[in-house]
Design brief:
Chain lengths: ~180, ~375
C-alpha cells in the first residue's frame, strides 16, 4: 500500500481538487500512519502560523521603539555603518515606522478631540438657562410705582420712563 | 450827703447801666443771629447745596421740640384742607428727574395729585400726560404717623430754627443720622403746621431729593376743580399670619433689610401673571418697596436697561435707578426705593440673585444634566 507522500501536504494546504481530495480522504480513513502524518502536519502548520504572528508582533514592537527614538538624521547613517549592529534592522524599521503610524495617531487624536469638543459643546448648551424655567413676567412698574407712592405718603408722581411693559394701568383697580 | 458819696453812687449806677446794656445787646445779637441763620437756610439753593452752617446743639429739649413739630405736621397733613403746587426733584446716581404736581387735599380724605413731568436728565423727555392718583390720608412729604414711630429709633430729630418757604414763615426741623450727618430737613408752616418743604441727603451730604410746596392755599376754598380719584392702593393688606404663610410657601419675605429697614406693611394683588406681593420697608425716613412675583424675567425687556449693582446684573427703568428689577430662584423682584443710593445697593445686594456659574460651572452643570438624561433608571 502506497502512502500519500506529497499529496498529504497538498491536502493540508488545501491545494487538491475535489476528486483527488476525495481519494486522499478515503485513504486517510483506512491508513493509520497517514492520519498520524496529517495530524502532525496540521499541528506543524498551526505552530508555524503562530510563529509568524509572533514575528509580526515583534516587528511592530521594533517599529514603535523606532518611533520613540530621537529624530536624528545622523542616527540612521551611523546605524548603517555598523554591519554587525542592531541598528540596520532598527534603522529600516524606524525610517518607515513614523510614516506608517502617524496617520493613525492623527486619526485617533482627531476622533478624541472631536468627541471632547462635541461633548463639551453639548454640556455647555445643556448647562445654560435657569434651573427650573418658570413663567416669564414683565413687572408692571407703573402700577408698582403708584402703590409705592401711596405707601410713602408722597404724592404719586409720574416720572419720565420709556414705558417698558406697555401695560400701564393693567391692575390699577386691583383688589 | 457829701459830694464824695454822690460821686460813688453815680459811678455804681453808671456801671450797672453799662452791664445791663451789654447783657441786652448780647441777647439781641443772639436773637438776630438765630433769626438770620434760619433765613439763610430757607434761602439756600436746593440743588447740590450741601447742608452747611446750621448745626443746632442736639439737646434733649430741641429733640423733643423737633419730634413734636413733626407729629404736629403729620396731624395737620390729615386735618387740613389745602390746595397747592408741589415741585418734586430727585437726584440719582445716573440722572435726575423733576415733576410739577397739582395737589388737592380735603380734610380727612385722600390726597389727590395730578402730575406733569418737567423733564429729566440725561434723557430730556417732553412733558407727559397727567395722571391722577389717590393717596393714604396718612401723610405728606413723607410725614406719616407710622414712619414717625420708627424715626426716633434710627435718627436724631432736632429743632433747627426758623425760615420761610414761598413767603410763609416756617420752623425748621433737622433729621440727623447717628453719626451726626444730616439725613433730612423739614420746613413746617408756622401757622398751619403743614410741611412746606423737605430735603433729603445721603451720608456724604449730597442732596437726594427736594420736595417743596408753592402757591399753597389753605382751606376748602381752593378745592374747586379737584379731580376724582381713579387709582387706589391695594386693599388686600396681609397680616403677620398671612406673611408667615407666604414664607412657608417659599416666598422670600425678609423681616428686615440693610439700613435698619423694617417690614412695615405687606399687600397682595392678583394679576394675569399671578399674585404680586408688595413688601414695604422703612427706617422712618427712607421707604423701599419690594414687589415679588413668581416666574422669571423675559430675555428681552424693551425699555429697560441693564446695570450692575455690586456685581449683580439688574434692570432699571428710571434714569435715577429708583426702579430696579431682576429674577432669581423662580421669583421676579422689583424694587422701588425712596432711599440713598448706598442703601438701595445694600438692599439689592441682600436679596437673592442667581449666581452666574462661569464657563466651567456651566460645563459641570451641563455634564450633570447630560448624565441625568442618559440615566435609564431615572
Amino acid at each position: 500500500m502506497s502512502h500519500l507522500g506529497q499529496r498529504l501536504s497538498a491536502l493540508i494546504d488545501g491545494e487538491l481538487g475535489h476528486v483527488e481530495r476525495d481519494r486522499v480522504l478515503v485513504h486517510l480513513v483506512r491508513c493509520e500512519p497517514c492520519r498520524a502524518d496529517a495530524v502532525a502536519l496540521r499541528t506543524l502548520k498551526r505552530r508555524m502560523s503562530a510563529l509568524g504572528g509572533a514575528a509580526a508582533d515583534s516587528a511592530l514592537t521594533h517599529r514603535l521603539m523606532g518611533l520613540a527614538l530621537p529624530a536624528d538624521p545622523l542616527a540612521d547613517t551611523r546605524a548603517t555603518r555598523g554591519p554587525g549592529s542592531f541598528r540596520p534592522v532598527m534603522g529600516s524599521g524606524s525610517a518607515a515606522g513614523p510614516r506608517e503610524l502617524r496617520p493613525s495617531r492623527v486619526v485617533v487624536a482627531g476622533c478624541f478631540a472631536f468627541l471632547l469638543v462635541g461633548l463639551g459643546a453639548a454640556a455647555f448648551a445643556a448647562g445654560g438657562g435657569a434651573a427650573e424655567p418658570g413663567p416669564q413676567v414683565t413687572p408692571a412698574v407703573d402700577v408698582f410705582m403708584v402703590q409705592h407712592e401711596i405707601m410713602t405718603g408722597v404724592v404719586p408722581v409720574t416720572r419720565p420712563r420709556p414705558a417698558p411693559s406697555g401695560r400701564q394701568g393693567a391692575v390699577l383697580h386691583a383688589p | 450827703m457829701s459830694p464824695l458819696s454822690l460821686s460813688l453812687s453815680s459811678r455804681r449806677l453808671t456801671g450797672g447801666a453799662v452791664l445791663l446794656g451789654l447783657l441786652g445787646a448780647a441777647l439781641a445779637a443772639l436773637v438776630l443771629v438765630d433769626g438770620w441763620s434760619g433765613q439763610s437756610v430757607a434761602r439756600r439753593p436746593g440743588a447740590g447745596g450741601a447742608p452747611g452752617g446750621l448745626r443746632p446743639v442736639g439737646t434733649a429739649a430741641s429733640s423733643r421740640t423737633g419730634l413734636r413739630l413733626l407729629r404736629e405736621a403729620a396731624a395737620a397733613g390729615v386735618a387740613t384742607s389745602y390746595q397747592g403746587v408741589q415741585i418734586v426733584a430727585w437726584w440719582g446716581p445716573h440722572g435726575t428727574s423733576t415733576s410739577v404736581v397739582q395737589v388737592w387735599h380735603e380734610r380727612d380724605r385722600s390726597i389727590l395729585a395730578q402730575v406733569t413731568d418737567m423733564g429729566s436728565a440725561p434723557s430730556a423727555a417732553a412733558p407727559q400726560a397727567s395722571a391722577a392718583g389717590a393717596q393714604d390720608p396718612d401723610g405728606i412729604l413723607g410725614l406719616s404717623r407710622q414712619l414717625l414711630l420708627l424715626m426716633p429709633d434710627n435718627y436724631q430729630v432736632t429743632y433747627a430754627g426758623r425760615g420761610s418757604v414761598d413767603d410763609r414763615q416756617a420752623q425748621i426741623v433737622d433729621v440727623l443720622r447717628p453719626g451726626g450727618s444730616l439725613a433730612a430737613r423739614y420746613w413746617l408752616d408756622t401757622a398751619t403746621k403743614l410741611p412746606l418743604r423737605r430735603e433729603t441727603f445721603d451720608s456724604r451730604a449730597r442732596m437726594i431729593s427736594e420736595d417743596v410746596f408753592i402757591n399753597l392755599r389753605i382751606g376748602a376754598g381752593g378745592l374747586h376743580g379737584m379731580p376724582v380719584a381713579d387709582v387706589r392702593g391695594w386693599s388686600s393688606r396681609l397680616d403677620s399670619a398671612q406673611i408667615a404663610g407666604l414664607r412657608a410657601q417659599g416666598w422670600p419675605v425678609p423681616p428686615r433689610l440693610p439700613g435698619n429697614l423694617i417690614l412695615i406693611a405687606a399687600h397682595q394683588s392678583a394679576t394675569a401673571a399671578g399674585p404680586v406681593i408688595d413688601l414695604d420697608y422703612s427706617d422712618g425716613l427712607s421707604l423701599v418697596s419690594v414687589f415679588l412675583q413668581r416666574g422669571e424675567l423675559p430675555r428681552a425687556l424693551p425699555g429697560w436697561r441693564e446695570i450692575t449693582l455690586r456685581g449683580s446684573a439688574v434692570y432699571s427703568t428710571d434714569p435715577d435707578s429708583r426702579s430696579l428689577a431682576w429674577s432669581a430662584h423662580g421669583f421676579v423682584y422689583t424694587v422701588i426705593a425712596e432711599a440713598p443710593a448706598a442703601t438701595v445697593d445694600q438692599v439689592v445686594d441682600s436679596l437673592p440673585h442667581d449666581a452666574r456659574p462661569g464657563f466651567w460651572g456651566r460645563i459641570a452643570k451641563g455634564m450633570r444634566r447630560l448624565a441625568s438624561w442618559a440615566n435609564p433608571f431615572r
